[in-house]
Amino acid sequence: MTERCYRFRLLLSADQVLSYYQGHVKSVVVQADNGLRIQLDLVHFRRFFQHSGLDGRFELLTDAKGKFKALHKIN
């Protein structure tokens, strides 16, 4: 099987991150550089959260069926 790679930017305010911790929001929809829209559980971004929110470019790796494999911050 072939891995697939998607790159995108995600910007969340401190209030949006707080909504995740309060249980109001569980996922986010991002638009990859190739135009594809991808829904991801925010739990995958927890290690990147800051007090000010989240701002960065990411690389998502999935298997050929679209199942999550890894998420890396690339800047």
TrEMBL record:
InterPro entries: DUF2835 (IPR021363). Pfam families: DUF2835. This is DUF2835 family protein.
